[in-house]
Amino acid sequence: MSVTNLEELFLHTLKDVYYAEKQIVKALPKMARKAGSEDVKAAFDSHLTETREHVTRLESVFAAIGKKPSAVKCDAIVGILHEATELMDEVEDTETLDAAMLAAAQAVEHYEIARYGTLVSWAGVLGHKDAVKTLEATREEEKATDDKLSKLGKSGVNKKAA
Ligand SMILES: [Fe+2]
Ligand SMILES: [Fe+2]
Questions:
Q1: CA of 140 to the centre of ligand 2 (A)
Q2: Fewest Cβ atoms closer than 10 Å to its Cβ: which of 28, 48, 67, 152?
Q3: Compositional bias (Basic and acidic residues) at which positions (predicted)?
Q4: More confident of the two residues 158 and 18
Q5: From residue 146, how far is each of 12, 49, 140 by CA, in Å?
């Protein structure tokens, strides 16, 4: 990759997040299947629907800047999801597993919030007004999901695990 200016860096980061969102679409159904709590399962299922929309939104951002959607491997999300998969294999107690998966899912959300925050601010500087709105919509859903997962943890999942 050769990146020499902010426009190219924006595009590169867009491809990185596009890769990440597609990996998350693959991971969430597995996490939902493993969840013991109905609330945790429902949270993963509903975020799967949103995440599919995030992929579509990114495609519209590519289109808005006149580029074809393409993905570049994002080592950060590979690492975070690898850790989540390892936990799913290692933790045997269902309630502890729910707490572990909530924590793993929140690591994913924080990664996404960071990336979308950066993309929103770069899109603004670069004058991609439509992209700003689209990326903000996703960022807000990531934040709402993170809050929802925090509440689930506090509302009992973590205590049950303890
Ligand atoms: Fe997302
Ligand atoms: Fe997310």
A1: 10
A2: 67
A3: 137-150
A4: 18
A5: 25, 15, 10
